[in-house]
Specification:
- By secondary structure, the protein is α+β, with helices and mostly antiparallel strands.
- The chain is built from seven helices and nine strands.
- The strands form three sheets. The chain has a three-stranded antiparallel beta sheet. Strands 4-5-6 form a three-stranded mixed beta sheet.
- Strand 4 (114-120) and strand 5 (123-129) form a beta hairpin.
- The longest helix has 23 residues, at 170-192.
Length: 242
């Protein structure tokens, strides 16, 4: 067996056809990894295929055969993109996930001695605390946002779980603050049927979005962006109000 890796599936298959000098249709192969563009240059993945068996010789193909190979390659590649990818998520217990996150914290530069994990309703509830909890949160929660993003991408991609991260009651205090700030908005929506928040960012806008959707399950509640600022609107399914 031999693996070929490239930015796209077509390029990976082209590498295999050049290596074995035959059509991809004459090979038994499996797609080990589909390509992924990633986000802001992070978490991108190349396509990886694994050749299991080759049913051809290394004789040079004729001009007619070469054309046929190229056409069949293109057909095979196009078909593969329309084949649904079956992603099988691994299962993990709360104790196992807790151990993995503790190992991660031990290797970091932060002194975090408390790691607790609970899993329920397809969500991993992670609590961290320690001497460097404030440093891990960062000014205005920027490190909290970064860590939450990293943990979510790992836990969701591998185990299919959502994430609720709490660091030394930071999330709880932020949630309490946001809910208090949103009360005038909630009252306004109840009175006139629509409203919008002040500009919010990071964890604050996520808390606000979740809370407002709980308060108004039958209304349109969504994040909007204007002039590099994000805020939340609430109305009757995007109805325009004067």
């Amino acid at each position: 067996m031999k693996r070929f890796e490239a930015p796209t599936l077509k390029e990976a298959c082209d590498l295999a056809t050049k290596e074995y000098n035959c059509s991809i249709e004459d090979m038994e192969y499996k797609i080990v990894q589909y390509p992924k563009k990633g986000f802001l240059g992070l978490f991108s993945k190349n396509a990886i295929i694994e050749i299991i068996k080759v049913n051809c010789s290394k004789e040079e193909p004729t001009e007619f055969e070469s054309t046929k190979i190229e056409e069949s390659n293109d057909t095979k590649i196009v078909d593969s993109f329309f084949t649904p990818k079956e992603e099988k998520k691994e299962s993990i217990s709360a104790a196992e996930l807790e151990s993995k996150i503790k190992t991660l914290m031990d290797k970091s530069c932060f002194d975090i001695d408390t790691v607790e994990v609970d899993i329920k309703d397809n969500t991993a509830y992670v609590f961290l605390d320690g001497e460097d909890a404030a440093l891990l949160i960062g000014k205005e929660g920027y490190r909290y946002n970064a860590l939450s993003y990293i943990l979510f991408n790992w836990i969701n991609a591998k185990y299919g779980l959502f994430l609720k991260l709490e660091i030394a009651e930071f999330f709880s205090s932020q949630k309490e603050m946001v809910i208090n700030l949103l009360q005038p908005v909630v009252e306004h929506v109840k009175k006139v049927g629509w409203g919008k928040t002040k500009p919010l960012d990071g964890i604050l806008i996520q808390i606000a979005l979740e809370y407002l959707r709980e308060q108004f399950p039958n209304k349109y509640v969504a994040i909007k962006r204007q002039n590099n600022q994000k805020y939340i609107i609430i109305n009757d399914f995007n109805k325009r109000y004067e």
